[in-house]
Each structure stands twice: as C-alpha cells, then as structure tokens.
Amino acid sequence: MIAVIVATPLQMFNSIVIMRHFFPGDTMDLFVLDIACDMHECIERYRSLDEVGDVYFLDDVCKKKSRAGIVFDHIYTTKKQKGILRSIRTKTYQDMFTTYVTRPATWLYTKLIKRNPDMRLHFYEEGIGVYTRQLYESYNGIKRMYQLLGYRCEADYVEDMYVFQPALYRGTKLPLKKIGKVTGQDTEYIRGKSDFPVYPYARCILFLENAYDGTPMDGLDECQIIDEIISAVGKENVWIRLHPQSPKDKYRDKGYQIDRNSQVPWEDLIARNARIEQVLLVTVLSSAVFTPKMIYGKEPGIIVAGRAVSMEYPGAGWAAACWNREYEQFVEGVAGLYQDKAKIMIPDSYGAIGKIARGFL
Questions:
Q1: What whole-number distance in Å separates Cα of residue 310 and Cα of residue 349?
Q2: Positive or negative CA dihedral for 255, 260, 265, 268?
Q3: CB 125 within 8 A of CB 98
Q4: Does the pLDDT value for residue 64 go beyond 60?
Q5: Cβ neighbours around 189 below 10 Å, total
Q6: For 31-35, 257-261, 295-299, which range has the lowest pLDDT when averaged over its residues?
C-alpha cells in the first residue's frame, strides 16, 4: 500500500498516473491537505478508481503560525489526528509520496515511519515549482526542534523525485524518475464514472488567472491584462479560466466570460478532445499552460505575461516577483520541447500582449 499526500487537483491527477505507471495493482491511501483549495469535490470525482483506498483529510494538522503554536502542534495530538492514527495503525505502507517539505507532511511521515520502518519516501511533481526552486533548505531552528521532539524531516530521507520532464529539472538535487507520457488509456480510465460535460473550444483566447492574496505577487491586477486583450479582440473571444482558489463570482462585476469548462479538471479537459491546440493560452504565472505539452505532447500557443508585468511596473516588489531568471529558463525549456518554438511568446508590455492576441484571431 502507498501513502500519498495531495493538496491540488493536479497532484491528485499526477498521483494516479504514478500509480498506474509504477505501482499497477497497488492501492494508495490519500492524505489530503487544505492549504491550496477545497479538495472534497476533486477527491469524490476520483474516489471510485481502483487505485484509491481510504481518504484522510489533514485539515487540522500543524495549522498554528506562532513559534509557541508550532511547538504545540508537534506535542499535542488532536482528537481528529488520533482518529486517523487509529485507522492506519494496522496498515503497512511500502512507499510514501509528497510534493515538498511541509509541517503536515513531516508530522505524517514521522507517524508512518514508526510503524513502517522500511517505508521509502519520494517527492513528485506538483507544477513548475519542482523545476525552478529548491524543495527544502537547512531549516535551522525547526530541524533542531524536530530532533528534540523525535520528528523526522523529509529532507533527510527523501530518495528521489518523479517528474514528467527530467530534462527541464533544475530543482533540488535528487535522482529523477520520469513519470512518462499520459496515454489515452490513462485518461479514459482516470475519467472514471464522474464525467463532466466538455465544451470543445472554438478559436479563442483563454486567460488562466491566479489567486495572489497572501503571496509575493499580491497587488497584481490581472484585469488590466484581460482588458487589454478584450480591447484588441472583443469580449466575445476571451474566456477566463478560474484558479481553484478563486471564488466563482470573482469577476461578476466585470462581465467577463467565464470558461464553461472551469468545473472540469484541467488535465482531464486537455485529454478529452477539447481542441486545446486552437486556443491561445495567456497567463502570468499559471503552470497549467505548460501541461498540454509536458504531459500530453500537445502544442497550443502560449503567452507568458510575467515579464510584461515586471516591465510595466518597474520597482514594484509584487511585479518583480512575477518574473525571474529561474522562471524564464523554465519557459525557454518548455519552448525547446515544442516543434514550433515561436508558439511560446514572452512579450514585454501589455500592449504587446494585445497585439499578439489580435494577430492570433
């Protein structure tokens, strides 16, 4: 049996693919975090799959932010945590997968390894972050706290990293395992019994927005970019795909067209003949625009607006956070995978974004 920590729909999808490619016939128990979005609907969508065993929501594990609270989180076990530990006390886990070092994962790994001393620990791809930044550091004081309290930091025990594109990997130095291309059989199976209707795209501009509250990019107004595109091609040709963390009514007062496929998981949507290659994808930072090529080998046009934001607002910290050399190298790496490298564009102004959109249509 495999233990897998998931926090986003992409992680859920990737974990199923890993199970099919590397652990056929095995079952994974899901340990679900609530740090990125509400995962209940996503979990229910895939719960009927053979790979999915029991599901545990870690929504009250290591939530405190103060120094005293962090210590308290590690010495006091809540009623819900005790219930989870009782449920898994007779289970044997041969492997555990997580996406990065985080306190809930440290808590779970420590608890599982006590009963499963031979359990192997792996990281797996959760987006472009694994390709562009380090997954763990020295952690200084908190690692000393872990040692004093008998906890194991994953950074000291992880064996390898599972990714779709090893050639693009520039993150933490770990042995890499290539997940492999997602096949038609994979996607047909993963769709399971809970299909949502898919509306194939006509030729259009699809803007993939982000939720920036509480991040280094907090302060960015993506509406300025969207309005620039609309002024160039007309509102009827522009659709907005909401980030999982964004409220469904986020743009109600703007009157934007919201992508009718927003309820369909992005990875599932690409696989289900949505005609994604006749869409121009636009984003500032969403890693989803790279999924068609990295996972499926499809090549839609892409505008990455991060550089434009940094050029439009020089000196603004939130704008500078939208573009750095690591991200630029990653985008260039994805372009290198394309047969037509010119289909990935990195304009340096909002006006240039509008001009490209006008030329596309």
A1: 9
A2: negative
A3: no
A4: no
A5: 14
A6: 31-35
Separation CA 45–CA 202 (nearest Å): 27
- Per the prediction, the chain carries an average pLDDT of 86
pTM over 0.85: no
Burial level of 358, CB count in 10 A (0-12/13-18/19+)? middle
Cα distance between residue 153 and residue 335, in whole Å: 36
| 154 within 8 A of 106, measured Cβ to Cβ | yes
Q: Where are the beta strands (DSSP E) in the chain?
A: 2-6, 28-32, 52-57, 95-98, 120-124, 160-163, 176-178, 204-208, 238-241, 257-258, 279-283, 301-304, 344-345
The SS3 assignment for 272 reads: coil
The model's confidence at residue 78, banded by pLDDT at 50, 70 and 90, is confident
- If one counts every other C-beta atom within 10 angstroms of the C-beta of residue 202, the result is 10
Supply φ then ψ for residue 234, to 5 degrees.
Answer: 95, 140
* pLDDT reported for residue 160: 94
d(CA 31, CA 48) in angstroms, rounded, equals 16
Handedness of CA 31, 37, 41, 45 (dihedral sign): negative
Ranked by mean pLDDT, the top range of 127-136, 229-238, 292-301 is 229-238
Q: Would you state the structure tokens that stand for residue 47, as one six-digit string?
A: 């719960």
Phi, psi of 289 (to 5 degrees): -65, -20
β-partners of residue 205 are 238, 280
What pLDDT score does 337 carry?
93
Helix (H) or strand (E) holding 16: helix 9-22
Residues 6+ apart with CB under 8 A from 148: none
Assign 192 a pLDDT band (cuts: 50, 70, 90): low
pLDDT category at 333 given cuts 50, 70, 90 is very high
HSE at residue 299, side-chain half, CA atoms within 13 A, is 12
Q: What is the pLDDT of residue 344?
A: 96
Please give the span between the terminal C-alpha atoms of the chain, in angstroms, as a whole number: 50
Cα–Cα distance, 81 to 78 (Å, whole number): 5
